[in-house]
Amino acid sequence: MVYCLFGIVFIISIYTARHYSFTLNRLFGFQRHPYIDTDTANWPQVTILVAAHNEEKVVANILTALMSVNYPQDKMLVVPVNDRSTDRTREIIDGFVEKHPGRIRPFHRTGGKGGKAAALKDAMEMVETEVILIFDADYIPGSGLIKQLVAPFFDPEVGGVMGRVVPLNVGTNLLTRLLDLERSGGYQVDQQARMNLHLVPQHGGTVAGVRLSALREIGGWNDNSLTEDTDLTYRLLLNGWQTVYQNRSECYEEVPETWPVRIKQIMRWAKGHNQALAAYAFHLLFGKHRATFRERIDGTLLLGVYAMAPVTLLAWFLALGVFYQGIAPLHGVIALLAFTAYAAMGNFAAFFEIAAAVRLDYTRKRICLLPFLVLGFGVSIFSVSRAFVSQVLAPITGAKFHWDKTERFRTTP
Amino acid sequence: MSPALATLLLVVLAGFLVTIPLLPAIIELRLKRDAQPLDVIQQYGGDIRHFAYGFRRIAVELQTQLQECVAAGTSATGVLPDGDEYVLLGHPDESFFVPATKRDSTWRSVVVAGADLALPDDLTFAKEIYAAGDLTGGERNTFRAILGGKNIHLQRASKVIRWAHAVRRFRAEHDCDLYGRISADQEIQLQSGCVFQRVNAPVIASGFSDPTVSQYLSRLSNVAADAAPSLPPAGRTLHDGDLEIRAGEVVHGSVVTRGKLHISSGARILGSVKSNGHLTMDSGASVEGSLIGGTTMHVGSDCRIGGPVLAERGIVIESGTHCGSAVNPTTVAAPTIELEEGVLVFGTLWARNEGRVVPKA
Fold first, then answer.
1. Could you tell me how far CA A134 lies from the centroid of its own chain?
2. A40:B271 CB<8 A
3. The pTM is what?
4. Which residues 173-202 on chain B approach chain A with CB closer than 8 angstroms?
């Protein structure tokens, strides 16, 4: 038992060191934004896929925003992927098609497999351009965003692009404020540090782009994946395509406003991520492919982030067991010192990361909410662990692939 | 003290102690002092002319008054809504700006001139300046921002602190420091010793003696109106180590190297190029698509590059090289850029730290 605990502590320590190295890199390291200054170019044709499943509350906002971006109109086609919507989504989209002839070509999907990846896969029949951008329907792109997301594709090594997600409904309640802090840490520090350090920035599947030839080379969208974005990141990496992150390509999104919606969302992410862990971790770490050594290590650690929740829970139980069995690991004093050191440093790695992100964003007072993040982490750790257990038990329980769409809360369509 | 009371007190005390560190969080949650979404710029598309257009709106609002000054050959003063003082000049001559003492060499008003404007040496303009006609600076002038209704011509060792925009041509003589944004709707010429950051025009030329770039271009024997594809056809080769493309070799498709890349003289790449190490392009080589460097890049003389030229650390471009074309303008961007005299960039030059025009070796 004690050796198992040591093993888990070792892994947790690696993640702790990773958090600190990312944060320190963002605060003091060289920042890479290699494509952001591409101001003038012969811009390529681009198809913008807008994934929409029952999005009557939000779809008009994104279509309005896309119609006013500064990308050359004759080089941009918007394809709303209306995936089996049963609300007014179709009607709203068709209204826009009428209003902007030739600029929007809708893909109304009435049947087929559920899930965003399946819908995108079907919508590929509408795509003829080398560059594809993807947005979820609740996003509101700014005027210059499309050019910023297209620019990296001038680099022939780039297969995927990811922009920064910024919550719009921050002030609604405690949950939205906590999610704002989490997003801030995740993008402003985590993603950008991975970009800076030539590691593995993650494709997020929205505010994102993919190169058609790269997508074809890796076999298209994986509609068996619950997180097609994570799946895409790793297949691109294994085939020698880079995914790049653009921290200054920011786009508003709507975050969940209720805990049940948030729990569903994070459980889906966890399951999808764990799918990718099972599918790619071994090959990424030991296989013959084009990823560099540092990409192999970071990619594997990234794949394991959701698996760490049940592992941490297990460590807590093991620690209790060790305590009640009266075992003093190594030597009591060393254990005490290690525990104290970890309590002082390790537990705060993620908080330090978020605090740094808030500082980098020049938003100071929201940092006061940092202690409440314990609540968010608590909910996450149990939700993700639950997702993990249900996933492991799926072959026994016979649970089927199921894709939960995140509920929207916007009130002004 | 009864055990019940003691327990209650303990709970209250413990609760109080737990709450103290949470007080700032509770206050922030209640008061929502910082609960706005991050400020994502939705409408500003990054246009280099953004501030010039803003100032032009101010100049347009003053047009009626300015025309009166032009007709009467007088000047007038006033105060803008933001509190800045302005001076309208009908028919300004150089003597208008000649300072009585050295202390007066700084103009603190916005200057709006209804005609051509020629400035004496050693003046500082702390606010924006607009000339409806040609603006010709004096030597060692310092400008906060300039809007030229026609051409702008800065004399030796002048400085622009924030932005300058010329509706026609912009020319900076030797040793000018051009911070911020410099743009023109026709062309920009920068002489050696000029320092720049962000520059945009249909054509940007470094160190030309001809009065206009079109005159220079007409002297060239074979200027191709390149029509390179925006993204070259799919198909690329990946190299894990260093790579040399031999002299005169023609490569179909894009090339990506993990190490250094050397494109020898006269080689042609019918695609894009990416090198994660140092990239060297020898004289007369050409790349139809983009040229991307993970570190530094040295582009030799008389090269032709169709697409964006981007490097993460620095770029040196030698004389006679053309980046982009009149048909397909492009971007040359890196933290530091060194342009030899005789380089043409069609589109944008963007050096986040410092760009510099250097004499031809």
1. 13
2. no
3. 0.91
4. 198, 200
Helix (H) or strand (E) holding B187: strand B187-190
B247's CB contacts (< 8 A; 6+ apart) are B264, B265, B266, B267, B282
3-state secondary structure of B119: coil
CB B151 within 8 A of CB B166: yes
Question: Which DSSP state fits B12?
Answer: H
Task: Write out the two tokens for A100.
Answer: 């902007």
User: Which of B40, B252, B327 is the best mutation test for A, with the most CBs of A within 10 A?
Assistant: B40
Q: What is the mean pLDDT of residues A76-83?
A: 95
Tens digits of residue pLDDT in B61-103: 998 888 888 888 888 889 998 889 999 988 777 677 777 666 6
Q: Which residues pair with B160 in a beta bridge?
A: B143, B178
DSSP 3-state of A71: coil
A38 vs B308: CB contact, 8 Å cut-off? yes
User: What secondary structure letter does DSSP report for B342?
Assistant: T
* Residue in B334, B323, B331 with CA at minimum distance from that of residue B46: B331
Residue A83, min C-alpha distance to chain B (Å): 28
Q: A30 in helix, strand or coil?
A: coil
pLDDT band at A413 (very low <50, low <70, confident <90, very high): very low
Locate the chain B residue with the closest alpha carbon to A34: B312
Query: Under a CB-based contact definition with an 8 Å cutoff, are residues B159 and B182 in contact?
Result: no
What angle do helix axes A373-397 and A349-360 make, rounded to 10 degrees? 120
Higher pLDDT, B232 or A165: A165
Give the number of beta-carbon pairs within 8 Å between A and B. Answer: 161
State the Cα angle at A372 between A370 and A374, rounded to 5°: 100
Under an 8 A CB cutoff, do A39 and B46 touch?
yes
DSSP per-residue string spanning A245-289: EEEEEEEEE----SHHHHHHHHHHHHHHHHHHHHHHHHHHHHSSS
B350/A37 CB distance under 8 A = yes
Q: What is the secondary structure of B41-98 as a DSSP string?
A: -SS----TTHHHHHHHHHHHHTHHHHHHHHHHT-EEEEE-TTS-EEEEESS--GGGG-
> Which residue among B28, B46, B234 places its CB closest to the CB of A366?
B28
Residues B187-216: pLDDT tens digits? Answer: 999 999 999 999 999 999 998 877 777 777
SS3 B171: strand
| A44–chain B nearest CA distance, Å | 5
Contact flag B38-A250 (C-beta cutoff 8 Å): yes
Q: Which of B104, B173, B170 is nearest to B135 (CA)?
A: B170
Q: Which residue has the tokens 């622009």?
A: B160
